[in-house]
Structures are given as C-alpha cells and as structure tokens.
Amino acid sequence: GASMGISAAGLYRSDTKEIDIQGTISPVYLLNGIGRIVSKKGEGLFGFNYAMTGPASAPRIKVNPLSILTPGMFREIFRSAPPRIEE
Asked: Where are the domains of the chain?
C-alpha cells in the first residue's frame, strides 16, 4: 500500500514540557523513491516542511505549503535554523 515519510529534528524540554521540532512530511513516499538520492532519509523528492513549537500538550503547528514545490535537495531554503540547546 501507500506509505508516508516523516522526518523530525528538534528539542523536547522535559522540565517545561515544551517542544521545538521541525521536519518534513512526504506524502505517498513510495512514489518518492528517487528522493533518496537528492534528499535526507525519511524525506521524499516532494514534501511539506512543518514546525511544532510550544507546550507538548497543545503545540502550535505550522506547515509551509510552498515547500512541496521545492525538490528535496533545495528544501532547506524554507527551513528555519535548528533549535539550540541553552546552557
């Protein structure tokens, strides 16, 4: 059957129970097999960038619909900088 690829990178702060995660959702991943050559593992040739921030119990979710038009190797253009661990 059809499958979907999902990638995620970010932070979960256990003391405040907040998340700061971003990644890509690749619908119909099976058809995106060529994406393995030009994108990260778990992402297809076509995919939506997303971000989840805030309380883990009710995160704010943002999706960039224009990112589906960008082939995998150029999708980084639409991503924000990865979250940093504060010391």
From this structure: 5-78
